[in-house]
## 1
Amino acid sequence: MNKIRIGIIGVGQIGKMHIEKYKNIASAELVAVCDLNEAEAKRVAEHYDIPHAYSDFRELLKRDDLDAVDVCLHNNFHAPVTIAALQAGLHVYCEKPIAGTYSDGKAMVDAAKLCGKQLHVQLYTLYGKDTKAAKTLIDGGMLGKLYHARSSGFRRRNRPFVDGYGTPYFTRKETAAGGALLDMGVYHIAQLLYLLGNPQVERISGKVYQETDMLQERREQSGFDVEELATGLIRFSGGLTLDIVEAWAVHLGGFEGSSIAGSKGGVRLPNEQTGPGAQSFSFHNTVCDMDMDSTLDLDMMDLRRNRLYENEDAYSSSQHHWIAALQGRVPLLPTAEIALNTMLISEGIYMSEELGREVSADEVIVRARTSAVQL
């Protein structure tokens, strides 16, 4: 297989995680890294045996030996760097969320189409065994007509920086644009949108909160002005609905995992808790007029698929899928479109909070403004 030559833009916590993934993919060749912190860029390049290091992404984009770049920056930097890379003739993998606002995400999707390049957004939940099992059951008609879904994400007290990890940039609108909804909610919402067929959003209602105590010194240092808890109700065309609760911090012992209900059956996806209260994948239906709750051996499902299905490795992770798609082995999943729909929902929740009422998708699109950092 032809190797895909990649440049990494941003070598912080997320950038290093992406590099680790690529190092396990034989068809991926890391050519260069870039970070404003030139010393760290050089250190990372040396540590991972990557030939070139830059402090200016524009210089990296001038290289003629790259196929794609991976943008691992804070949310409000996604649009300008991604669009510049697309215009430089490169395919782009971008960390989630697609951008800080719907307007910026739409500009990225439009630029990819105009430039004839592929845009891929990091949505790791699409490649989980639970997602594959749910998609198989849905495609096999086992759920019947899908009519309601629930997106949930739980952390007891695990906010960036104020609870002891990450940097203050995750907690400020000027760089992150949002909090729990854009950091973790995007994964759970996008997973459900993928399973539901990425339906058209019609109306959005939501509320966001920041109520849990935090250390005063950390509060002052963080400039914490984003939400730690978000809730929402989404109405799609055709009558389908989705309710959302996403927590960075909440005084509860846990949430049930996300779920999808259909006319013939339903699925519950695992939550991310460990220990007591953790849930596994389950399928629920009626057999011979008896209510049945079923579990599946997802590990054996995955083993069998990898033994028998061609190109199953292309769905092992977001990075595996990206490389396989650029090689032409599989079509790229519509991650950019799903991520853009996720941003429409998230921005709709913020707008509903601001206006104190339900909003339409059209309102969100019309009112959407850029939050991108001007480079």
Note: The chain is about 35% helix and 20% strand.
## 2
Amino acid sequence: MLTSYAAHFDTPAGYLDFARFGPPSRDAVDATARALAESARADHTTVDGLMRAEETARDTAARLAGTDARHTVLLPNASTGLFHAALGIREGAVLVPRTDFPANHYPWRRTADLGRVAPRWLDPEPGGGVTPALVRAALTEDVVALSVSAVDFRTGFRADLAGLREAIGPDRLLIVDAIQAFGAAELPWEAADVVVAGGQKWLRAGWATGFATLSDRALESLEPVLTGWTGVEEVGLFDGAEHPPAPEARRWSITNLSPVTAAAFAAALDLVERHTVGAIEAAIAERIDELTEVVREFGGRVLSPTDPARRTGILSFTVPGRDPALVAKALHAEGVTPTVRADSLRLSPHASTPREVGDRVAAALSALANRPGGTGRAMIPTRQ
């Protein structure tokens, strides 16, 4: 556990569902309360003052992504960024993993409906992910982009972004959904042309927070189809005329965001920047190692990668012969919160997760093993 980081949170020790939602810090909660309280006491300075949180959050997100404010825009969620990217491509084919989260499918299905861009579905090996070799085998002259998750939501497979960039070459776009990685894993974000992320998972900023970064290549080649009134030049001039889209990433802005959620996002990003992504990632990796050992000790079948280079903070597994719902019930009895799927379970700790969570998971799987039809494994001793 990263103690200095963990001190900012009140999340229960057994919470292992950060890949679904990351409970925010007291910093983010307090920032939300302050912004909302200020809005309730509005005067002639209130709106302009509250709006400064958006600039602060944007600048911090840009630094964490290895870029600058000109190439960064705040968005209410990752899906908005993916639709901007999809609708901005004029024509051609885009490679998309069939195994990806649905949010990564529908933007491309909609562009196909409009007759603009056709998705070409990639089929990774079971338990694997999108690799440079898989992409190279699918490349044809009409492919104009690759859209991929930095981390697979099912297994935690970490994409080789630098290798994928090399595979598609310099002239195609690399569009990356970073929601399962940003703030919790160090990746070469500069390899991508578009990076989108929501803040409600590993960044622990709460819902309705997110951002996108755009490379110069993306700014030049993607049409700003969804540009709204806040994404144009001379945004404060209300003259009844259509203004051209802003030359920077702000062109993806549709309207003003909530300054209340922007304040929470700024606080959450500041916490990550101060404690560093590297330290957060290392603390998560330590918990993943321990949980993997426990799952295997009790006969669980690990579905996630074991290679540290391809692994992140997600541990997916099954217990052979046991319905995942029953395994989840045993975990709940020990105060453990997993993600429950129809065919598997997913444990996703954070840097604030204490070591004791391994004992809780061990107790749950031990109780399950000792029931009729269980594995019959003996309980492992409490870990020091």
Note: The CA atoms of residues 321 and 373 lie 8 Å apart.
## 3
Amino acid sequence: MIDFIGSALSYIGPFLLVLGLVVTIHEFGHFLAARSLGIAVDRFSIGFGRAIATWKDKAGVEWRIGWLPLGGYVRFAGDENAASVPDQADLSAMRSEIERREGVEAVGRYFHFRPLWQRAVVVAGGPFANFGLSIVLFAFLLMTVGETILPARVDGVIPGSAAERAGFSRGDLVVEANGRKIKSFLELQQMVSMRANVPMSFVVERGGRELTLHATPERKTIVARIGGEQKVGALGLRGLEQPGDRVVKRYNPLEALGGGVARTWDVLESTVYYLGRLITGKETAEQLGGPLRIAQASGQVAQAGAEGGTTPFAMVLGGLVALLGLTAVLSVGIGFMNLLPVPVLDGGHLLFYAYEAITRRPLAAKVQAAGYRVGLALLLGLMLFATWNDLQQLRVFKFLGGLLS
């Protein structure tokens, strides 16, 4: 029991650090977009619940830190409900009240009376801030830590595996997979892991010439150090490292920026690819994780990064660097999720704005309310399902059963 509690506590700090940074940057994206367009903002909150610290800036924005550090929000002037998109009758009543209270010229400061494109920019500001955070973090890591490159050279082929049937041999150097250049064995593993039961083509260098091989990764259950038990695609190859193969490359600022964009795009592309396979039934939903698994991964990543240090300072620094990498990946996922056309999410707002652009009037309040209820139900259902997966993955039920027996 003590070990379990200690393990849980070791995940909480890294989890709050990662989630807090991702969510704060997301909300700050909305905030910066609004302020750049001259839209009045009442409050910017980091965390929910009762404020443990609060202050106002010169523009009259109330900044606060809530006691529950699991999110945050931006409240625009005049917003009673941050998720609302008022219909024509609501807008008319709101305009009349503002004109009576503050004067006609004050109407233009309010979010809901701004041109449609400006409202869309503010809503999209959050997800794109997440993408920007990922680019910056990846670029920072490429400049400071660098990129370790170990060519995808084959050391051995597991008997009976997909690789053996395809004709892979020891010493082969995989240079291309499905038309994409492969720079490292890790890159090859990541690409194959997401393509269980998907036919793939590989270009390998063997004896000074290139050969094209075809293989279909098999779905295998592995126990990864970070993430625990996973079902992934596997070829059945073991990596070979020859003297001089391992290279650590550090990028200059311009190269790092380009690398940050490329890695952010790769994560986004992988996310979309996985979601597409999930929707079409070609991928299992067991890999969907919620906050518990994010917390577990945060703790494991921090511990793995710290183990490389030889002094306490180096261990802390290693843990933080590892967490930055996880934050970059998670930020892409949060940005993409928020762009999905689901009411309650930013993508749902953009969907309503698209309707408004076509019909020249906001969607009826009753339809919006129904859409938000459906969207909220979908999100809650997804969260419950992901949490159930987390509990199964983390063997919580087995642990509780042991306590009760």
Note: The first strand starts at residue 41 and ends at 56.
